[in-house]
Amino acid sequence: MLSTLSKTISLDFARMASTVTIKYPGVPDIAAAVGERLDKVLKEAVPGFKNSCNGAAVCTKCMVSINTDHLSKLPPVTEDEADGLEDVDAEPNQRLTCQINVTNDMDGLEIIA
């Protein structure tokens, strides 16, 4: 039992500690922790990156364009995100980073603007 619990804790810790690489123009590759919100990752790594709604999907300042070949790396658009994107007539490859939690699938994600 203790062995099983120890393995579970080790696996959970490894999952929490994992990082993926995200590419953003003009900055070195970004190491992003799995589970962290993408806007927070970009705010720390990209000079001048902003958002002002603290993840409410209403200001759209955190909107980025994603390489269309990489859209499948992202989770589906939430209803809140869809509403925010619709308000600004966003292009199909644009997403609100405040609505995206980093996942292992996002390794190598290329943000183009």
UniProtKB/TrEMBL annotation:
Keyword terms: 2Fe-2S, Iron, Iron-sulfur, Metal-binding
All residue ranges annotated as the 2Fe-2S ferredoxin-type domain in the record? 31-103
User: What Pfam families does UniProt report for this protein, alphabetically?
Assistant: Fer2
Does Iron appear among the keywords? yes
Cofactors needed by this protein, per the record, are: [2Fe-2S] cluster
Q: Which GO terms describe its biological process?
A: P450-containing electron transport chain
One Gene Ontology MF term:
metal ion binding
Which interval of the chain is the signal sequence?
Answer: none
InterPro entries from the entry? 2Fe-2S_ferredoxin-like_sf, 2Fe-2S_ferredoxin-type, Adrenodoxin-like, Beta-grasp_dom_sf
As for family, the record states:
Belongs to the adrenodoxin/putidaredoxin family.
Q: What is this protein called?
A: 2Fe-2S Ferredoxin
Q: Which organism is it from?
A: Carpediemonas membranifera
